[in-house]
């Protein structure tokens, strides 16, 4: 029970990042830079408390991972500008789940039995169906062509976002496998470097940016509780709950940001949420065997 309670924290913390940051406002570059400031502050606190040993490899690969993460987050914020939080966030989480699972299965041989392929394949199918319904646009909507043009830009941004997120996840989990508490400070430094690059190193400390640093603190808290959930309830529960956080983004985008949906789109979103929920849980089960 304790592990499940721990897992709820990253679910809500990470699921809330998109609509909280967009409620605060700012460009995608300002949002990313502000978020990394908060993440670095949080990482320094963790380092002071935990005192982990930091090797050259940790610093080198941690910084690279942080730069890749900043690419993923920046492009995700960009996609949100074009598609809305309620659409971009579940598509982002879902694409990471699908491609991450496929890479894990066929490149790193994480799926080794027929059970893995049958259940995992069914889970991925549900996620793809969830993609379709969560991003579907009602034909009666005004300016549909204008919306689709923005959606195309959003999909391009999501492609880069998925590449960044998957690259850093594979680097940390499949190639180097660093302890979270040890790598959090080097990664935060890399995140600052990456977000500064997107701003062409013209650093901005305006009120909007500093407010977005609170989002970075949320991300850091989610990271710590993800670790606690994995150690207490197992990686499968922690993994599933963290990805289900995309549902929080859908609800938050509609309720708090006023992203308009027609009755048909609300129905499609509900179908997408159910498919995404079941698919993420099934992938968690596959990872536990």
Automatic annotation (TrEMBL):
It comes from the Bacteria. The keyword Membrane applies. It is a multi-pass membrane protein. InterPro entries: EmrE-like, Sugar_transport. The keyword Nucleotide-binding does not apply. The chain crosses the membrane at residues 6-25, 32-50, 56-72, 84-108, 114-133, 154-171, 177-198, 210-230, 236-257, 266-286. Pfam families: Sugar_transport. It is found in: Cell membrane. This is EamA family transporter. It comes from Streptococcus pacificus.
């Amino acid at each position: 029970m304790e592990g499940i309670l721990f897992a709820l924290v990253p679910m809500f913390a990470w699921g809330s990042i998109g609509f909280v940051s967009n409620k605060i406002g700012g460009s995608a570059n300002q949002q990313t830079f502000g978020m990394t400031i908060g993440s670095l502050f949080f990482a320094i606190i963790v380092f002071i408390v935990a005192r982990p040993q930091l090797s050259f490899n940790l610093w080198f690969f941690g910084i690279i991972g942080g730069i890749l993460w900043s690419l993923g987050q920046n492009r995700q914020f960009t996609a949100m500008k074009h598609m809305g939080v309620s659409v971009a966030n579940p598509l982002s989480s879902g694409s990471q789940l699908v491609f991450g699972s496929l890479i894990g299965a066929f490149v790193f041989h994480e799926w080794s039995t027929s059970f893995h392929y049958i259940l995992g394949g069914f889970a991925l199918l549900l996620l793809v169906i969830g993609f379709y319904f969560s991003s579907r646009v009602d034909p009666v909507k005004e300016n549909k062509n204008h919306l689709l043009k923005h959606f195309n830009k959003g999909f391009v941004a999501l492609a880069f976002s998925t590449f960044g997120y998957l690259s850093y996840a594979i680097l940390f989990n499949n190639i180097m496998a660093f302890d979270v508490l040890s790598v959090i400070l080097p990664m935060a430094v890399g995140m600052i470097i990456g977000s500064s690059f997107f701003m062409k190193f013209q650093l901005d400390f305006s009120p909007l940016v500093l407010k977005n640093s609170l989002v970075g603190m949320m991300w850091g808290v989610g990271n710590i509780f993800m670790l606690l959930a994995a150690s207490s309830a197992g990686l499968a529960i922690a993994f599933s709950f963290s990805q289900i956080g995309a549902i929080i983004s859908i609800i938050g985008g509609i309720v708090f940001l006023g992203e308009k949906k027609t009755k048909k789109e609300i129905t499609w979103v509900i179908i997408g949420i159910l498919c995404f929920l079941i698919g993420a849980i099934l992938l968690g089960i596959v990872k536990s065997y």
